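hey so u asked for the seq, here:
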Amino acid sequence: MKKTILAIAFVAIGAVSCKTDKNKAAVSDEVKEVAKTENIINTYKANVAESTVTWKGNKPTGSHNGVVSLSKGTLEIESGNVKSGEFIIDMTTIVCEDLKAGDGKEDLEKHLKNADFFDVEKFPTAKFQVASSEVKSGKVHVTGNLTLRDVTKSITIPATITEADNMVTFKSETFSIDRTDFGVTYKSKKIDAALKDKFINDLMEVSFDIKAKK
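ran it, structure tokens below
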């Protein structure tokens, strides 16, 4: 199976630029009521082998990026808009793509999976559930509940939807979330000011590219 992700380590590694700040997803502690699937005819099942959740993080000395795999996902699409949906992310599949085997890749992936970061033994999955959406300026702005390390926050992200031959592609713009909102505080300057330039930035970059079929 092709490796795919979230954050979703997306968060753990990095100091982000002003551009990333501008892309920060709107986050709220108010958990939204999840939209219910109503029309089976318009429901698509994610092809997990062809879907990707990407992550990227930065720190003063550099950055790392990679992917995480979906375990399953569904989308209900109607008139180019998302009516409902859910993505389940397998956090045990975190992969770093910018390092080669034997060059720190395995150590970084292990560290991201341990209790300092995503604690995948205790929290093996993350998920995003659609609550509502609206089309603005050609983009679908999707509001939903993101759950990571058993913490749920409401976020809104812009995306595009393409439909063709009983297939649909849901592609989000790159957005950023604050890892400390989800209890990932390792080397956060917000938590420990004494870190000086040895901190890992709180913001992480994430994007979804989900391909699904009726």
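The chain is about 5% helix and 50% strand. Residues 108 and 151 are 23 Å apart (CA to CA).
lmk if thats what u needed
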